Amino acid sequence: MDLTFVIEKFALVTILFAISLVIAMYSTYAERKVAAFLQDRLGPDRAGIFGLLQPLADGVKMFMKEEIVPTNANKWLFMIGPGLAMLCACIGTAVIPWGQDIVIGGRTIALQVTDINVGVLYLFGVVSLGVYGVMIGGWASNNKYSLLSAIRAASQNISYEIAMGLSIIALLLVTNTMSLKEIVAQQHGWHWNVFYQPLGFIIFLICAFAETNRAPFDLPECETELIGGYHTEYSSMKLGFYLFAEYINMFVSSAVMATLYFGGYNYPGMDWVAIHIGGNLAPIIGTLVLFVKIFAFIFFFMWVRWTIPRFRYDQLMGLGWRGLIPFAIANIIITGLVIAIKNF
Amino acid sequence: MESLSKKKKVLIPEPLSLAERLYLPTIVKGLATTISHFFKKSATIRYPEVEREFSTNWRGMHSLKRDEEGKERCTACGLCALSCPAEAITMLAAERKPEEKHLYREEKYASVYEINMLRCIFCGLCEEACPKEAIYLDGPIVPSDYLRKDFIYGKDKLVEAPLTVK
Fold it and tell me: Is the residue at B8 inside a domain?
């Protein structure tokens, strides 16, 4: 392992980290703007032009707030909670292929931190770990509402992870690989997986909403029942971390959906661009296309939030266990049968 | 039991259709409704820059009026303070000196006239009580401030601007 390799990966990780944070920052702004537009309002427009400095103002506010640790809270876990939530949200970006290889000074650089051959499993593991931040924070607060919320978060994530995993299995039957880089490469030229796995995509989408604790599955933090849910006792930047982690999760799951089902950096007319423009510009256009897809998904997340009211807890469980899991299993069987008949 | 009025109507909800039970078509319908609002004009009025149109009988900040010759109308009779249900008005009366004849309409005038805008409920009873037509609630919205003491408005803020010399 030479030094340039280390520098290259370090730079890529830093850039990805910065991009995730900036996108999370501006997602808070976008959420408020989208909410406002969907409700015939204007949204924040005082800080800077169109309120573009609003996230900075919010950040300053968060840092300036008094930091309160409840007397009877478990101090260590109380501090670890938001950090863990943030960590698990951030490391998901490592396996996503952000673009085709670019060449700088005769050196091929992959726009992917690491192409592990079990990329899909890694993502799954990271997403499952994400709930620990919520659980630890909720338990350490020593507050009944926080604890209830933590329990809800845990059971909700476990239930929806099953359906999500089953929908992924059907996808893996089609792709024959777990490496995200290869999955994206296979989707070149309109062979997007969403056309082969429409039902799987819908199940995955619904589960992604549940895994990121977004409306209509935001039961862990529903303020009408649980005050603030797991972050009731949190203040200052610890609260900020939890809110941030949610938006980073949203960004990562949007990226995953774009990668797995919507062709990642692939776009129509890609070959023409590669031939006529070529060089490093073509992969960069691909990366921008991927980001357009991601932003479209983030917008969809927000759009749904301001459309559908929150599910009741038993409805949530009913949908997960009696709705999505049977559909996902049926999807696997049908996919398997079709593939078996094709290869017969 | 038998309904005596014969108006009782028993409603039996129809079972949900398959599309309704699948839930997705109705969600798509809802999404269409919300996105249609995305392109509608917003109802917000950007307040400090833009003010909404007030109705003609709208009651805002008080102003102490002057007569046709630019003299203050108020004679410090205290009826406004007496009529005020919120005890927001207070004043001190003084006697007009001969050289002040062009300033005040009658021999007695209010040397100090204060309205506490935090107490005022903008009911308009002072306006109705005034026998001299000296006080009207025809001003703009009372602006916000940081300190309680700054909400006690004296004559400097309440009296109408003097008539401009032609």
Answer: no
